[in-house]
Design a protein that fits this description.
137 residues, alpha+beta, six-stranded antiparallel β-sheet, 25% helix
C-alpha cells in the first residue's frame, strides 16, 4: 500500500503497532524527556483537521494525555490512569509543528497532579490541561 509522503506516519502506525503505541505513531509524536518534563513534538497535518479546518481539539486532549502518561511512567516506573482531565483550548492550530510539555504539579502520593501545555512553532500557548493521575505502587 503506497501512502502519500505526508501521511507516512499513518503507514508506520499501521505496520508498527505491535512494536509501538499506535497513537504515538499515528500522531507522529516525537517523545523526549528533559529533567523536569516530557515533551512531544508533532506535525500539524490536515489529516487531523476537524470540519472547522483546524487540528482536532479531541486529538489535542489525547496528545496531552499521552504525554502525561509517558512522563508518569518515566518518573514513577509504574502504570497509571487518568482520573480526571480538564482542558482549555486557547487558539486553533492550523500549520507547522507543535510541542506538548507535561510535568508533575504536586504531591508524591499515589494520586499525582499534572499539567500539559501545547505550544505552536511561534511559542504561543494554544491549549493546556490539568489532570489527576492514579499511579500504581
Amino acid at each position: 500500500m503506497k501512502m502519500p509522503e505526508k501521511n507516512n506516519h499513518l503507514y508506520n502506525a499501521l505496520t508498527n503497532h505491535q512494536k509501538s503505541f499506535f497513537l504515538v505513531e499515528f500522531l507522529a509524536l516525537e517523545i523526549s524527556y528533559e529533567q523536569s518534563f516530557c515533551a512531544a513534538v508533532f506535525p500539524i497535518n490536515d489529516l487531523y483537521f476537524g470540519p472547522d479546518g483546524t487540528f482536532s481539539t479531541g486529538l489535542l486532549s489525547t496528545i496531552m494525555d499521552i504525554t502525561m502518561a509517558h512522563w508518569a511512567k518515566n518518573k514513577t516506573g509504574s502504570a497509571g490512569v487518568t482520573i480526571e482531565l480538564t482542558t482549555k483550548y486557547l487558539a486553533p492550530l492550523v500549520k507547522g509543528t507543535a510541542r506538548c510539555e507535561a510535568r508533575f504539579l504536586g504531591s508524591e502520593t499515589c494520586n499525582r497532579f499534572m499539567e500539559a501545555q501545547i505550544w505552536n512553532e511561534y511559542n504561543c500557548l494554544m491549549a493546556c490541561a490539568t489532570a489527576t493521575w492514579s499511579v500504581a505502587n
